[in-house]
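Shipment paperwork, digital attachment
Item: protein structure file
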Amino acid sequence: MKRILLICTLILFAGLFTSFGQTGQTGTVVFEEVAKIEIKLEGEMAAMMRDFPKEQRSNKVLYFSPEASLYEKTKTENANDAGGFGHSSGNMRIMMSVPENKVFIDLENKRIIEQREFMTRVFLIKADMPEKKWKISGEQKTILDYPCIEATHTDTAGVITRVWFTPSITVQSGPAKFCNLPGLVLEVNIKDGERVYLAQSINFDPLDKNRLKKPKEGKKVSQVEFDKIVAEKMKEMGIDGTGGSIHGGRTVTVRIRK
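Attachment content:
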């Protein structure tokens, strides 16, 4: 009975707000990304990190159409607006910046092309569109005047991801690699706020024909190969942590070698 009610809810939302969908199949969404940061220094240097920012904020943009979407860093001249910052204490200086990553989703062929920057190197990762088992809860709320429905996913590590999608915009895409839901994803919350994506604005201006280009730069690797490269480099530098994984915030432990 509950399943029938959820299906009816989806149909009702799609029907009541079809006027949005008719004009909104191509457009742009600006997202704010917020990632919690925790840098742990062992020993005497731990006190040096008291004033270090506890989160990193950045703006990203999603260009979407019924055929494809592209998610990338916004073009800005202000490093702070782009999410970059630095912190100095004594003889140590820590700099963090938002890499020039891009996620292209081929909605017609169910493929994802991801351009990832790591330690000044650029990689190109190609994979099939993920088929996560989303559970539609039936919870509802409004984001930017669009009615949204909640869906959740729990991965093998027990990490819970909550997304809010709107059936009013029928493009099955969203920020980063969040897709394959019956509507555009406008909010993502991973691991109780360790990483959050929230839509700030939506417009339906026609896209330039060259806007939705597939990323082509970088060394071609699989996701497994990329993860291995990152892990090995972090270990080499004496750093343990997620490095900004999509599964949550950024926790890094730095061991100072004497």
